[in-house]
């Protein structure tokens, strides 16, 4: 297994299986993060657009959520680079 296959396998473990609705929600959060919004504001915007997928967070899990979206954002950047 080469490095890219290892990376893709590991990223699938981290990201997990997501429904189309979850992917759309995640993409909306990432869109706002790319525009420079902080994670709480990006989630608030995504929650407004996709209320059925809205994240309900308490103050304790914001760091985990932020880490997840930081990973997703970087993952998208990597996938973009290796596909071009």
What does this structure look like?
With about 80 residues, the protein is an all-alpha fold. The chain has one domain. The protein contains four helices and no strands. Helix 2 crosses helix 3. The longest helix has 22 residues. The two termini are about 20 Å apart. The model has no long low-confidence stretch (mean pLDDT about 95).
Fill in the keyword field for this structure.
84 residues; mainly alpha; 4 helices; globular
Tell me about the biggest sheet?
Answer: none
Distance between the termini: 21 Å
Using only C-alpha atoms, the radius of gyration works out to: 14 Å
Mean pLDDT: 93
Q: How much of the residues is beta strand, in percent?
A: under 5%
Total strand segments: 0
The run of helices and strands is HHHH
Q: Which structural class should the secondary elements be placed in?
A: mainly alpha
Counting H and I runs of at least 4 residues, what is the number of helices?
A: 4
C-alpha geometry: globular
Low-confidence segments, given as residue ranges, are: none
Helix content: over 70%
